[in-house]
Amino acid sequence: MDARFDDPYGEAAGRVLRPLQRQIAELAMAVSNDFYDELTGRSETARILNRLTADGFARLKQSQARHVMMLLDPDLTQKAHRAASEHVGLVHAMVGLDILWLVEAYTLYQNEIYTMLRDQVPDAESREMFMRILSQRILRDQVAQVSSYRQLDMQVALAFTQIDYCVMSASNLPDLERGILDIVCGLEGDISGFVARPDAVGQLQIVESHGSTAERYQTAMEAGDIPWISIDPDQASGMGPGGRAWRSGEIIVSDAWNLDADTTPWRKVGLELGFRASAAVPLFDENGQSIAELSLYSAWPGYFSTTRIYGFLRHVQQVMSVGLQRLAHAPAIPIRKQRTYRRMLDEKRVVMHYQPIISLKDGSLSKLEALARLQGQDGSLIYPQRFLRALGRDELLHLFRRGLEQACADCHAFEVQGLNIQIAIN
């Protein structure tokens, strides 16, 4: 064998593959069909494939056919091949394809391609060259895919540590909930989600969310296009994954969200937003009773039931429950109202009211205590007991800075009028 074919890319490999392009294009779909016929006969892979709709399965086969053509592209470069294979590997990892099975499947894949194309290669030497190029490219494909599995494992391992730090360092509820959502939804998997607590009638009200998809989902609930998730078993909206998770105390996963009968009330909007899997994670008080719920959605079927992600969610459930027990002692503020308060802060609609502090010794004015209020568009005042719980650490610092600026300006105005008085900011 010519040493030039130790490199499965470049002009030498291209000369072997270029004459086969018409046959490859004709046979690529047949290779894909035979490949998946074999897989559907195996219980471990049939379980994953059965999460797809008929259209989804057809698209998967077409994607596999394109991958065959990419593998045998005479102009393929090592860099382009690795990038494409890493993406495929990440998809395989996210849907729960076992890495050992992946290696076995690629042996089948290689044999299938070679069997279909070997008779199209004119002579023994060219067939040997073709087999060498094919085997090396498939080996590199496997290596790149396995690296994506490792990358996702490392990402999840880091997220364990980040979750623990977030729970230990959060000094208020908004920072805890936003921090957890940022970490979880930052994982590979096209994840969106929200934290919710029940109102007086048992509907889960969203108090924090992550991503435009979750916000659009909430908007659809507010508009009545889909129902609010309920914890009431007598309501149809209480029989979905969210309601069942709340009542059972167990994480409820939907591997095929678009096929699960329990998701029917929310399906139309969810499918438009790309939901293909979900996880409802109940969060507990000191007595093990549900007090909040973390709802997560992914674009990948089976994502939340993979070993790495389900184990991670169990950890999130445990430590986030501890954080809520430490910080959650007041009724929930719906997320729309929270955002209204934060917007008012950004728009500098902070006003300081002053309460005189009188000396008990002589009845003189000792100092002024500055009390922050938010002012609505209509001039109405919103008191701290209503808005402080909606503010995280950054917003509280922002509020303090606004209050300090206003108090300093007022202090100067008092001095101009001859009143030299201290101001204490509360």
Quick tags:
426 residues; alpha+beta; five-stranded antiparallel sheet; four-stranded mixed sheet; 15 helices; 55% helix; 14% strand
Describe this structure in words.
By secondary structure, the chain is an alpha+beta fold. Helices cover 55% and strands 14% of the residues. The protein contains 15 helices and 9 strands. It has helices at 10-17, 21-40, 43-49, 54-71, 78-95, 99-117, 124-169, 173-185, 212-222, 241-248, 267-272, 307-327, 335-346, 384-387, 393-416; strands at 192-198, 204-210, 252-254, 277-284, 290-298, 350-358, 365-375, 381-382, 423-425. The strands form 2 sheets. It has a 5-stranded antiparallel beta sheet, with helices on both faces. Strands 6, 7, 8 and 9 form a 4-stranded mixed beta sheet that branches. A hairpin with a 6-residue loop joins strand 6 (350-358) and strand 7. Helix 6 runs antiparallel to helix 7. The longest helix is centred in the middle third of the chain and has 46 residues, at 124-169. The protein is elongated and about 110 Å long.
Q: What's the short story on this structure?
A:
The chain is of the alpha+beta class and 426 residues long. It is built from 15 helices and nine strands.
